[in-house]
């Protein structure tokens, strides 16, 4: 197998996106249009005429070229239309150009890695298979989750598709303790707008009895996965447990479909408990750190 390093402007976008669409482990994060939104810059490793691809999201700081994991992109790594082995993953890691002196990336859940020169850190997301009927799925909710859904219903919370990206982001701004940067909001706007235009996004809003938006969530639906990318709740939404009703609505809407709901986290126990309450189970993916910096800079980084 010949693995080639390809600059972004040299990437055959049609072949690239066809590879992601046909990959055994394809994810929306890896499509060229998505990478163009979230990456400062990206190049690629390509093999067998785009049967296997590996995006390299890069930047430069103090003259040092490095690979990083972009915002709103939990997992990347190797994608292939064929069988993926740990040995194949290692071959692609070996092919990362030497000019990238520091590498901190997150691989997708499908990949298993055995790469001694890297520090491998296990991370957790939570998956829920939606193939079964809604009564079966909802029957697996925790007692606490069922109670909170009932509380939202008692408050008259209703769920609608009528919310716009701008309305959701306005609610997000109001609810954040640590504000996102302007660039991050611009990135989210582009992700939501393009996803909706391409038919791979779904935006839901929860409304109070006064028909005021109190919570919202945005899902990316592609390659057999529904990714819970962004959620926001105002004060009233938190008090009335609107997000419980919203996620329950999504599960009901997509039950009996070959979708995996990926909650996109979390290593934080309280957030993980929310996901587990809907019957989701932990699924591991790996963060990979490879430090090729000169010794003096390695010491400085510490």
Q: The CATH topology of the largest domain is what?
A: Aminopeptidase
Number of β-strand runs: 13
DSSP helical segment count: 11
CATH class of the largest domain: Alpha Beta
How far is the first residue's CA from the last residue's CA?
A: 38 Å
Helical proportion, percent range = 25-40%
What does this protein look like?
The protein is an alpha+beta fold and 302 residues long. It has two domains: 3-123 and 285-301, Aminopeptidase (3-Layer(aba) Sandwich); 131-258, 3-Layer(aba) Sandwich (Aminopeptidase), CATH 3.40.630.30. 35% of the residues lie in helices and 29% in strands. It has eleven helices and 13 strands. The protein has helices at 13-22, 32-38, 86-94, 134-139, 143-154, 165-175, 182-198, 235-239, 242-254, 269-276, 295-301; strands at residues 3-6, 42-47, 52-61, 64-67, 79-80, 100-106, 119-129, 158-160, 201-207, 213-222, 225-233, 260-262, 281-291. Strands 1, 2, 3, 4, 5, 6, 7, 8, 9, 10, 11, 12 and 13 form a 13-stranded mixed beta sheet that branches. β2 and β3 form a beta hairpin. α5 (143-154) packs across α9. The longest helix has 17 residues, at 182-198. The model has no long low-confidence stretch (mean pLDDT 95).
């Amino acid at each position: 197998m010949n693995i080639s390093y390809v600059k972004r402007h040299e990437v055959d976008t049609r072949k690239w996106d066809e590879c992601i669409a046909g990959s055994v482990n394809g994810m929306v994060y890896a499509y060229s249009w998505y990478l163009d939104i979230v990456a400062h810059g990206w190049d690629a490793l390509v093999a067998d005429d785009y049967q296997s691809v590996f995006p390299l999201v890069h930047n430069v700081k103090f003259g040092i070229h490095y690979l990083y994991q972009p915002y709103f992109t939990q997992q990347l790594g190797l994608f292939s239309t064929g069988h993926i082995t740990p040995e194949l993953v290692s071959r692609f890691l070996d092919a990362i150009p030497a000019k990238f002196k520091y590498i901190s990336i997150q691989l997708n859940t499908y990949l298993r890695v055995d790469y001694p020169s890297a520090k491998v850190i296990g991370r957790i997301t939570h998956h829920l298979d939606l193939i079964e009927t809604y009564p079966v799925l909802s029957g697996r909710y925790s007692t606490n989750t069922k109670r909170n859904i009932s509380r939202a219903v008692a408050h008259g919370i209703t769920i609608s598709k009528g919310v716009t990206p701008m309305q959701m982001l306005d609610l997000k701004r109001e609810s954040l303790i640590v504000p996102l940067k302007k660039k991050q909001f611009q990135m989210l706007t582009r992700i939501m707008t393009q996803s909706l235009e391409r038919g791979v996004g779904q935006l839901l809003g929860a409304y109070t009895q006064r028909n005021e938006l109190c919570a919202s969530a945005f899902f990316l639906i592609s390659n057999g996965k529904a990714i819970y990318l962004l959620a926001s709740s105002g004060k009233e939404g938190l008090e009335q447990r609107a997000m419980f009703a919203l996620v329950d609505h999504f599960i009901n809407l997509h039950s009996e479909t070959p979708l995996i709901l990926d909650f996109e986290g979390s290593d934080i126990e309280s957030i993980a408990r929310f996901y587990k309450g809907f019957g989701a189970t932990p699924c591991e993916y790996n963060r990979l750190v490879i430090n090729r910096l000169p010794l003096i800079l390695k010491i400085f980084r510490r």
